[in-house]
Specification:
Elements: E1 2-5, E2 8-10, E3 16-22, E4 31-37, E5 44-50, E6 56-58, E7 66-71, E8 76-81, E9 90-97, E10 113-114, E11 118-122
Parallel strand pairs: 2-11
Antiparallel strand pairs: 1-3, 3-8, 4-5, 4-9, 5-6, 7-8, 9-10, 9-11
Length: 123
């Protein structure tokens, strides 16, 4: 189970930190990611982190502005979002996958678990 929080409304240039608390996942489900979906658009991968080694990946659209991190003691993954733009407005989702051959961190079909989403609105 994944539960996101931290969304809200913010002015352009502002910051938000999203949280994703994971529970009842197996130890092997250790690839975590953040996706977003704006109305009328495909769900896109923003950032991913491998819990075991801490390796991170970012989409070019958020590189340098967003940071994915983890707190293993709290079973929580974060997405720190800075310098927000109106085009960042979307529903943001946390996802989890079991690493396997051929997995692409930014391909939604490769993820096994999803949160319910948290809305981010930038004006």
């Amino acid at each position: 189970q994944l539960v996101e929080s931290g969304g809200g409304s913010v002015q352009a240039g502002g910051s938000l930190r999203l949280s994703c608390v994971a529970s009842r996942l197996t130890r092997s489900t250790n690839c975590m990611a953040w996706f977003r979906q704006a109305p009328g658009k495909e769900r896109e991968g923003l950032a991913s982190i491998y819990i075991a080694g801490g390796t991170t990946y970012y989409d070019d659209s958020v590189k340098g502005r967003f940071t994915i991190s983890q707190d293993n003691a709290k079973n929580t993954v974060y997405l720190q979002m800075n310098s927000l733009k109106p085009e960042d407005t979307a529903m943001y989702y946390c996802a989890a996958a079991t690493p396997r051959a051929g997995l692409r961190w930014d391909r939604r079909e490769d993820y096994d678990y999803w949160g319910q989403g948290t809305q981010v609105t930038v004006s």
